[in-house]
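pls design
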């Protein structure tokens, strides 16, 4: 079996003298590893494309007896040189991709994940100033929304009232719904201000690449962080602890 696809490279390593393994995100197959035999020396087959954070058009075959993916040739589509010049941006992208690797398994949602990653890389690549330290939280929320855990942030799930007409709304984490103040019970929900709701609504309708330098005020940061942490722990089963993504 053979296929040709636009992918994003996460990591590249060398084994033996001239061979590489490549960890990449495919829009149809998810995050997979392939092998580029002779990849370190073949300029004809992999002309400068085997580097992390490149978008590459790969021609891939299944290898002998379908035991592994063999990368036959690659063409560089985007190298994101502006992003790679800045260690801060590279570190932040690495943080987001590690999170993606922790939660995204299998093929479902891979095209959406690919779009999200490409938009993020493009956003950082074109950013002249420093990235927002809050961006990884925004990325996590957008990823959860795109991986099947989207929320209606406009209407109360119970009475259908417009949430923005109230000062705040309650998010029932386990049910994955928002409720207006009249419909929230006594416990079991997180309170989000209308400003935080407006951010979530805006996030659902804009590309993630536009958020790379967005810095919210302190109370909005706290509110969005609490929501992201609780929502992602429950629905995606992971959490950030001491700079590591852990299963919980
Ligand atoms: Zn209601």
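designed seq:
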């Amino acid at each position: 079996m053979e296929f040709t696809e636009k992918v994003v490279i996460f990591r590249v390593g060398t084994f033996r003298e001239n061979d590489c393994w490549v960890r990449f995100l495919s829009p149809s197959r998810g995050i997979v590893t392939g092998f580029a035999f002779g990849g370190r020396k073949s300029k004809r087959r992999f002309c400068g494309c085997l580097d992390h954070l490149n978008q590459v058009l790969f021609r891939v075959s299944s290898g002998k007896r379908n035991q592994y993916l063999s990368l036959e040739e690659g063409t560089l589509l985007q190298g994101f040189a502006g992003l790679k010049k800045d260690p801060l941006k590279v570190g932040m992208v690495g943080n987001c991709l590690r999170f993606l690797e922790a939660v995204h398994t299998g093929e479902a949602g891979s095209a959406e994940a690919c779009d999200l990653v490409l938009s993020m890389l493009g956003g950082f690549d074109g950013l002249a100033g420093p990235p927002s330290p809050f961006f990884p939280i925004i990325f996590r929320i957008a990823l959860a929304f795109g991986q099947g855990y989207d929320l209606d942030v406009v209407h109360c799930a119970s009475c259908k009232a417009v949430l923005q007409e109230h000062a705040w709304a309650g998010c029932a984490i386990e049910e994955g719904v928002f409720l207006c103040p009249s419909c929230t019970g006594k416990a079991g929900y997180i309170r989000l201000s209308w400003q935080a709701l407006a951010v979530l609504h805006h996030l659902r309708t804009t590309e993630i690449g536009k958020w790379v330098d967005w810095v919210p005020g302190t109370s909005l940061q706290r509110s969005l962080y609490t929501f992201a942490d609780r929502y992602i722990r429950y629905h995606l089963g992971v959490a950030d602890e001491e700079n590591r993504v852990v299963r919980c």
